[in-house]
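Exercise 7 asks you to align residues with tokens for two separate proteins.
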Amino acid sequence: MTRTLFGMIVFTTLLCSAATSALCAPRTEQISGASAPAQISGASAPAQISGASAAENLKYYPDPVYKRLNNDDPPAMSDMTDLANQGDVRAMFILGDMYEKGKGGLPKDLVQARHWFEESGMHGYGQSFIRLAAIAKHANNTTEAWQWYSLAIKNLDNDDTQQYAIRARKDLTDSAKLSDGDIDQAHKLVSAWEDARDKHLRDEKDAEAEKEKQQKEQEEKQAQDGAANSSVATTATTGQDDKKPEQQEQENDNEQN
């Protein structure tokens, strides 16, 4: 029951905090030990941020610390982690989102966030590159941010998010005063990442094929063992039936004696 209630809370939070191309508007949450921020009066509220740029401007309030009530309770987001490990790209993206913000009962961990965003991007979820670019920008790694924006442009469809990535890359080039050498280096990073992605996907495919092969061999062996056991049992029964009546009677007398 504890796990079900926690899952419902996490799922509700994800509907807002893990949105992709157009995140939900900043929300006011009740903070333990303090009142929620008062509404601004006497002036118009700031215009709502729309589009992918919201990902870099939203403020996030900390979630309650996740604590197990029982020793056998699962770790935080265990179901989401299982889905991600099974290849669900949305689950990978959500884990990256939760680790980046330290939400959903998970600690804030940019290493894990980058890992899951990259996994999601490698498996075709282009929104992840926008988030990776944001992490790189916040770390003042402008060349890497340019790389991620470029990958977003290449992997997203012609939609608002792709147009945002195009504008963001241009703004980054201008604001950071990136040189031709910087951009050449970023292009090399793009190529290296794509090579690593292709190898990663090939390795996954080979591992899955090997797993299926071993499973098939095991099933065939079990079928052969079952057939062999059935043959032995049939032979033993047939041999018993082929004995002369006096032989069977003598064996029964021996067993009883």
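Second protein for Exercise 7:
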Amino acid sequence: MVYPYYYCQSRRVRQDLMTVHLSEDRNEKSELKMSSGNIREMLVKTLEDYKVSRSEKKALRPYVEQWKRTGKLPLVRSEAFDLARDELIDSNSKAVVQWLEDLTKILLTESDQQSKSKSAVLFSPNDDCSGRIQTHIKMARKSIQICVFTITDNRISDEIYDAHRRGVRIRIISDNDKANDLGSDVDQLANRGIEVRKDHTSFHMHHKFAIFDSKQLLTGSFNWTVSASRNNEENLVVTDDGTLIHQFSQEFERLWKSLGV
């Protein structure tokens, strides 16, 4: 078999041409029985024609799942990039591969973190949305940012005040019109020393979200009221997704700053 010039320039292939008889049978590669004990050998076989065939993808998938569970996936990824570097002679090409590997590590790390995030959704009146909010307030240790249309559920208000007394910094943003409603606890919480800022525009501050210790986010249609808990069809989303927490935190700080003018 005659190999193209660029193919023969690779370090590994030059060595293979001298010491190894390369099989001409295409089926031998696709029907390869892969052993999880020799990761490098598995990757070398997929590299022989610079393609990952459909059969190879199928054969690799169960091992990929195994590597994920055992934490070996970064090792396999590193091995693959090492093999790619071995195929190159030009130093600039190697530098490009190194850049690609470094960037891939960053991107996959971020992706892995997102895949590990935990989320849940509750629906009132069947699920205890108010109880879930109270639990998160109880668990908070450093900070709570509350941005809600109204607060009239005394059970939630009591937990907010208890958290304030144990040293948790609490900031509340709410709507000025709803704060004047009968049963609203917003002004009462402000009178107890909790930081409160209200929207005074002709429109409504209609958000319903809260952030706990910059680690947990609650949002959804659920108003912090007794009627929402007992009667209304509402939803409450709970998540530790870092991207969402960051975006909601930015929105809270934007509003907090604008309402402090």
